[in-house]
Amino acid sequence: MNxxxxxxxxxxxxxxxxxxxxxxxxxxxxxxxxxEDPGQWLGVLGGIRFRAARIVADVKLHTGQFTYDxxxxxxxxxxxxxxxxxxxxxxxxxxxxxxxxTYQMSYLMGKREIMxxxxxxxxxxxxxxxxxxxxxxxxxEGSIPPTLMWDVMGLSRN
Length: 158
Prior knowledge:
Layout: H1 5-9, H2 13-29, H3 38-62, H4 68-78, H5 84-99, H6 105-125, H7 131-140, H8 149-152
């Protein structure tokens, strides 16, 4: 555990939400949903798809390419939402995007950065790679921006 008090107070959304999305896939691969289940895998992929759609809607809202209503309609169409409750959920989500720009992209972008770190660690360590040690090292630093972890973990981008 890093003893630096700043690390204890740091609250980096990309690391926190990226870790959460990364874990959604990890628990599937760890078998915590039971035996390999295509339905569960589609659920994981659906979560990733939803996070990707949020990035598009968020960016387009904040660059003036979508109005609020266009953002809602695009999300409904892109995600094939048909139920009234699903459409209401999308309306609430898009409203949230209007008050928290770039937050939505932190999930998928953070996960991608963690996965890139992991791949670099696997390449560097080869047969000596330990997923547990990687996770321990990653989390021991607190919620600093994942991009800073490259130096902390002694990794280089290819």
